[in-house]
């Protein structure tokens, strides 16, 4: 395969490989189609962002406006995720240091929003069988001093979004509440992202592996948790490391953060009503208990008063009878 390291692509960031946020034509068309009905909020106007995205993708913005949008993205990442700024540069020599006992797997995500959460919180979860596969691979590799590397790709995207390293085995008793399909993915393990850049499948079209069903196909045809042999995995790492000036999911972190914030506000507002009702019910029950206790105390006092009155009347009647009997005897 011809290397793309000789000439920087058009619109590169200072023409340097692995610059902070490589600039060029944006290829994020259709990125949000699978998430149109997710994180909906009446206070958030989805048409605004969708219209802006469409105009940006179709290059309807002037070159000056496009540069301003990219500058805004850079400032946002620098202010909130500064640890991600030079991540690709810091790890560009990693392919040369790979342990021979390391393993490689493909991760297929239903939504890029889940990849955003993985980068933001450093976690991931697969299907039940996928979690077991990855957890076993982690134990086997770590016993021999190796690592498990994950090539992330979203369904239908035609590219890899980056590479992450497993940091822990999967804990099947844990779960994560912010996946786009909440409640479906049980189990959780920690990851550390090594590369964050969009690399199209065409860069790996010559790499073929044996799939789970025994067929030999290009690696881009892999399904979730498909293992990649070491030699092919190392080649893929080298090409991702050297790939220049691709777009990244970081360009849309502000958008995904907004959607997450609005979603969490909605959940909080929905949850607070039952809480208020519960508090009101508890307060009402407490008031009723106080009233009932007071009524019971009042009834008890009344009973005691009646008993005392009866005793007084009885004593008075006895005294009168004794006096009458005394007079009669005289």
Describe the structure.
The model is unreliable at 1-58 (pLDDT under 50). The chain is an alpha+beta fold and 330 residues long. The protein has helices at 46-57, 63-80, 87-90, 112-121, 128-143, 230-242, 253-329; strands spanning 103-109, 123-124, 148-154, 159-166, 171-175, 186-200, 208-210, 216-218, 226-228. The protein starts with 45 loop residues before the first helix and ends with a helix. The strands form 2 sheets. Strands 1, 2, 3, 4, 5, 6 and 9 form a 7-stranded mixed beta sheet that branches. It contains 7 helices and 9 strands, in the order H-H-H-E-H-E-H-E-E-E-E-E-E-E-H-H.
Query: Per DSSP, what share of the residues sits in E-state strands of 2 or more residues?
Result: 15-25%
> How many strand elements?
9
- H/E series: HHHEHEHEEEEEEEHH
- Overall helicity: 40-55%
Chain-averaged pLDDT:
77
Low-confidence stretches: 1-58
Largest sheet: 7 strands, mixed
User: What class would the helix/strand composition place it in?
Assistant: alpha+beta
Q: Cα distance, first to last residue? A: 141 Å
For the record, the CATH architecture of the domain at 84-249 stands as Roll
| CATH topology term of the domain at 84-249 | ph1033 like fold
In CATH, what is the class of the domain at 84-249?
A: Alpha Beta
Approximate shape: elongated
Structural Rg: 35 Å
Number of helices, where a helix is a run of at least 4 consecutive DSSP H or I residues: 7
Q: Which superfamily, in CATH terms, is the homologous superfamily of the domain at 84-249?
A: ph1033 like domains
């Amino acid at each position: 395969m011809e290397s793309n390291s000789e000439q920087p692509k058009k619109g590169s960031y200072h023409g340097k490989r692995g610059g902070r946020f490589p600039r060029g034509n944006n290829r994020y068309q259709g990125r949000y189609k699978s998430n149109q009905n997710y994180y909906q909020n009446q206070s958030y106007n989805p048409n605004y962002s969708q219209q802006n995205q469409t105009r940006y993708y179709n290059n309807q913005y002037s070159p000056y406006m496009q540069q301003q949008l990219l500058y805004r993205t850079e400032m946002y990442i620098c202010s909130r995720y500064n640890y991600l700024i030079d991540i690709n540069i810091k790890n560009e020599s990693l392919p040369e240091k790979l342990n021979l006992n390391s393993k490689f797997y493909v991760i297929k995500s239903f939504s890029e929003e889940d990849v955003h959460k993985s980068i933001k919180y450093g976690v991931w979860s697969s299907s039940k069988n996928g979690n077991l596969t990855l957890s076993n691979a982690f134990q086997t590799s770590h016993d021999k001093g190796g690592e498990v590397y994950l090539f992330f790709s979203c369904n239908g995207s035609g590219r890899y979004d980056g590479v992450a390293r497993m940091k822990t085995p999967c804990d099947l008793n844990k779960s994560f509440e912010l996946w786009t399909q909440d409640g479906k993915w049980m189990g959780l393990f920690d990851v550390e992202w090594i590369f964050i850049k969009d690399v199209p499948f065409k860069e790996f079209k010559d790499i073929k592996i044996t799939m789970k069903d025994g067929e030999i196909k290009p690696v881009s045809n892999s399904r979730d948790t498909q293992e990649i042999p070491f030699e092919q995995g190392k080649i893929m790492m080298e090409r991702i490391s050297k790939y220049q000036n691709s777009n990244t999911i970081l360009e849309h972190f502000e958008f995904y953060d907004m959607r997450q914030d609005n979603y969490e506000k909605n959940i909080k507002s929905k949850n607070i009503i039952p809480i208020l009702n519960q508090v009101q019910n508890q307060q009402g029950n407490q008031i009723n208990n106080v009233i009932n206790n007071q009524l019971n105390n009042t009834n008890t006092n009344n009973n005691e008063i009646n008993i005392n009155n009866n005793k007084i009347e009885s004593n008075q009647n006895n005294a009168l009878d004794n006096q009458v009997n005394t007079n009669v005897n005289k």
